[in-house]
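USER:
Class, as today's exercise, take the chain set out below, and explain how the chain folds.
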Amino acid sequence: MKILVMKFRNIGDVLLTAPLFENLRRCYPDAQIDAAVNAGTETMLTHNPNVDVIHVYDRERIKKLSLWKRLKAEVAFVRKIRAQKYDMVINTTGGDRGAQIALVSGAGVKVGYPVKKNRLLKNVFTRTLPEQEFRHTVETNLDVLRVLGLPVETKRVSIFWSEADEVEGLPKRFVHIHPVSRWLFKCVADETMAMMIDYVENTLKTKVVLTAAPVEEEMQKIEAILSHCSSKPVNMAGKLTLKQTAALNKKAAFFIGVDTAIMHISAANDVPVLAFFGPSGADHWGPWDNDEKGSGYRQRKGFQTMGRHRVIQESWECVPCGKDGCEGTKISDCLMRLDMAFIQQNIDAIDQTTKVAK
């Protein structure tokens, strides 16, 4: 039995497929279970014992090629997958790329979302997945099992790394803060984030370790936040790989950040999360608590919790809008005027809980 699971999306999306891989491994312990993902997201599945081979589609590189070279690269990628002679191909997102690969894969069983606008791909899947609606992404990934008549035995999100990824020299007790997303419209105001850092450092007397991706926009954001700080957190922004960030996070007392892949990594590590949501909805993307049997996010907006995790979000009529900021500004007003007193109450609550737990 050979199975391919495709997830051509972003880093957090790929991480949230981990429960699907684990369940497939339990159902088919002797199968070859492979993944196909976009370049830059594969680290969410490396070292995962439930994934055998990862096919990486270098979307950004291929987009920059000439038309003829782009076509050759696309064909080469599809031929590579077809050569594996998969028995089952699963596309866990909508969109044409996964459907096109499924069409030419030669697999007898094809699972995916219906393609409505492309007549050629309209009937490609032998089993179709239901719409997401008001359900968490972890649950929608597990719909694959449900349409196949397979049991859902675990909903645990897991991430794995090697000993070489461990980060040394960290404070004995610290709070991990990752204040930046690759989409800056998901970020809270710099002054607000600086106040959180100072509150943890100066009032709670606990060190803060900052992380961010080694890209210019995120590094500039970190510098802007630090310019408002009176404290001096440990700044590891731009210095770590994703795996190293995951290893660092596992040692944190708790995590503070925005809706980003690192938030999902923290939840996968069972490290308590305080997350800030604006344009996106916690019902789909809230930090997943591995100890819970189902999502705790029962509403589209506002303050919510799931187990050890907390999401702060405004209850404005326009939230969540799914847009990249207000009026094309790339800035989300709903993340600019958060109640600092309420934030401090939640930081205090998580801080006390983690102290008692240890």
Notes: The first strand starts at residue 2 and ends at 7. The two ends are 44 Å apart (CA to CA). The CA atoms of residues 183 and 324 lie 8 Å apart.
